[in-house]
Amino acid sequence: MQPFRKHTGVVVPLDKVNVDTDQIIPKQFLKRIERTGFGEFLFYDWRFSGDGKEFGKKIGDFVLDAPRYAKASILVAGKNFGCGSSREHAVWALADFGFRVVIASSFADIFANNSLKNGLLTVRLNQEQVAEIMRRSKEIENYQLNVDLETLRVEDGRGFTTTFAMDEFSRHCLLNGLDDIGLTLQHEAEIAAYEAKHPACAEMKVILAG
Amino acid sequence: MGETGNMAPRTLFEKVWDAHVVAAPEGQSTLLYIDLHLVHEVTSPQAFDGLRANGRRLRQPLRTMATVDHNIPTTPRGLPIADPIAAKQIEALQKNCREFGVPLFDMDSAEQGIVHVIGPELGITLPGMTIVCGDSHTSTHGAFGSLAFGIGTSEVEHVLATQCLPQKKPKTMQIHVSGKLAEGVTAKDLALGIIGQLGTDGATGYVIEYAGDAVRALSMEGRMTLCNMSIEAGARAGLIAPDETTFAYVSGRRFAPKGKDWGEAVTYWRTLAGDPGAQFDRVIEIDAVSLAPFVTWGTNPGMVVAVNARVPELKSFGQEADRRAAEQALAYMGLDPGTPIEAIAVDRVFIGSCTNSRIEDLRAAARVAKGQHVNPKVRAMVVPGSQAIKRAAEQEGLHRIFLDAGFEWRESGCSMCLGMNPDILQPGERCASTSNRNFEGRQGRGGRTHLVSPMMAAAAAIAGHFTDVRNWKYE
Ligand code: SF4
User: Fold this and answer.
1) How far is CA B49 from CA B45, B91, B161, in A?
2) A161-163 and A153-155 as β-strands: parallel, antiparallel, unpaired?
């Protein structure tokens, strides 16, 4: 996994609450069997006309397509970002598009977990702080934030500065880009001991044979 | 495990959690053992690729079960799959299952169906288990008193490789529903009523336990509908303590314990119910009498009102962000504030999905449809949750009732719940749907989804608009 330490980037405001993963990456793109190449389909139904079978025409009025946000790598959005479907494709699409950080006042659980596994940092701030970043990113041309996971700090060099919370273990994994499957496998002895006490249902074998 | 004596009283969730802790390393997440991993074609290919790339094996093939449901067509089974990308994804699952030795209920299997329908149906889902799947509606299996939750593809890979997941312990919420649901008010309405009250993020960070007389009175089908929708309130999982209703459902199913094992299993399952005095982080009381058949009016399941109410006025929203969200939702839905719900006409009706495609759902819808005719302006389809349900319904003659009334009777799968297969809404089409999400474009770009119960969906198909099923004149 790509580690995350600090990042400085342009902020794009997505001023909506309850942005669900069906919007982030519509279902017609879930049939791909790779992890890559989802970026161009990000927020597809809001950005493009047509149904995606033929690559549609860019509508052009969606905030992500405004020239001033072309280089954005930090997304700020309303509460409950990433709700709905568990599709990790939503995180792959955001990361592939170039986002490293999403800021919101709350995130859906599965989305936050998926982000963690892909080096996409989800930063929770309170509603006033989110509103302030939203306002500044709309008013100030080329508005940038520095996000530092080592010091758990977000600041814009123009007077906005705050800290955010993250559980210590998740932070450790992100900072070091740790493969958590590897971490779990360090517990091989405990897993094996658990399995010895709780055998699987052998009858499932009949389906294997069939 | 001899946890008696002076141990603090525990909730159902805490008991299931405690029984699956493999390791609790200092300063890290708890490592939980996963009893059952359900796999489908859409969220798994990248996980199997990950195993291959890292030279890892599948740890527990017999604790893994796969089926195809999300993108398969619901037209008769022998036909080729017209969509080449969908076909490729299905082939990838078949190949991965062969390579890693995963039991697969394939397209042509007599057991194929929506993953959350066939797990319980086959007795693979059992009380007290931990169950995961790369699908957020895994919460369905909580109806059996299992801790069941949706995961992303990286976590799918994690479970394939280790049969464990590192987890932070969620908070606990009890939703206590007293009283009795009225005739025409179903588990789906209870679920929608709860989400309407909590909002779509009201239970984020929590695991819900449903309790109270109205919950106890639900059949297993009803309990699955209720637990299925837990995720729509943001909850990771929703559980109901196993009881006689649960045991009666599980008993005799294909993979359920038999003979002496059955007796031992039931003895253990009886210990799972929460202890008296167990504490929850949050408790919510609901009176079943306050519930009605519900219809969503907006673009998330929390935007919901009773069928005899009206689309809300914008000024009724206190918060600016909510008012704006409602305004955007109504624009998308093509509705004006103040419109009576019963005045909203529908173009399509979908009865199906892991929320409402079980035999009891089909019986309820058929009771409404019996001897009636689908409104000529409406196209209505019934998609059973599994091949087994389809067979059972045909044995009872339910398909005749539907076909005679003008409903389409199709093969099992997720179908129009997410519209990955050819079953989709056209732009602007309005659908009464028994599924679980009314997000923008969920059933097809520009499509307008209203979530309802199977009875309400059948009634809307016949009337051509939403109508209060409590006033229905049955044949
Ligand atoms: S029926 Fe819908 S919600 Fe259920 S598993 Fe299929 S796509 Fe997901």
Assistant:
1) 6, 14, 12
2) antiparallel
Cα of B435 from ligand 1 centre, angstroms: 8
Q: How confident is the model at residue B158 (pLDDT cuts 50, 70, 90)?
A: very high
Could you report the per-residue pLDDT of B165-215, keeping only the tens digit for each?
999 999 999 999 999 999 999 999 999 999 999 999 999 999 999 999 999
CA distance A2 to A100: 10
- Rounded to an integer, what is the distance from CA B171 to the centroid of its chain? 22
Q: Rounded to an integer, what distance in angstroms lies between the CA atom of residue A140 and that of residue A135?
A: 8
Q: Using 50, 70 and 90 to split pLDDT, how confident is the model at B346? A: very high
* Residue B51 pLDDT: 95
Report CB contact under 8 Å: B154, A117: yes
The pLDDT of B341-346, averaged and rounded, is 98
Interface pTM, i.e. ipTM = 0.90
Q: How far apart are CA B218 and CA B226, in angstroms?
A: 9
CB A75 within 8 A of CB A121: no
- Which of A49, A85, A185 to mutate to probe the B interface, most B CBs <10 Å? A85
The share of chain B scoring above pLDDT 90, in percent, equals 91
**Residues A11/A145, Cβ–Cβ less than 8 Å:** yes
Cβ B409 vs Cβ B399: under 8 Å: yes
CA distance B40 to B45: 9
Query: Which of ligand 1's atoms lies nearest the C-alpha of B436?
Result: 3
Closest C-alpha to A123, from A174, A178, A163, A161? A163
> For ligand 1, is residue B418 a contact (CB within 6 Å)?
yes
CA angle in degrees (0–180, nearest 5) for B443-B446-B451 = 45
B370: DSSP letter: T
Structure tokens at B21: 């802790």
Q: Are B205 and A109 in contact (CB under 8 A)?
A: yes
- Identify which of B141, B139, B138, B115 has the alpha carbon closest to the alpha carbon of residue B127: B141
Q: Can you tell me whether residue B29 is helix, strand or coil?
A: coil
The answer to whether residues A56 and B121 touch, using CB atoms and an 8 Å cutoff, is: no
A24-54 per-position pLDDT tens digit: 999 889 988 888 999 999 999 999 876 545 5
**Would you call A117 and B89 a contact, using CB atoms and an 8 Å cutoff?**
no
Contact in structure between B160 and B38 (CB atoms under 8 Å): no
User: Strand, helix or coil at B128?
Assistant: coil
| Closest CA relative to residue B430, chosen from B438, B420, B422, B421 | B438
Q: Is A195 helix (H, G, I), strand (E, B) or coil?
A: helix
Looking at residue B337, what is its pLDDT? Answer: 98
Residue of B38, B69, B131, B350 to test ligand 1 pocket, by largest number of atoms within 8 Å of CB:
B69
CB distance B353 to ligand 1 below 6 Å: yes
Banded model confidence at residue B2, pLDDT cuts 50, 70, 90: very low
| Residue among A23, A169, A195 whose CB faces B439 most closely | A23
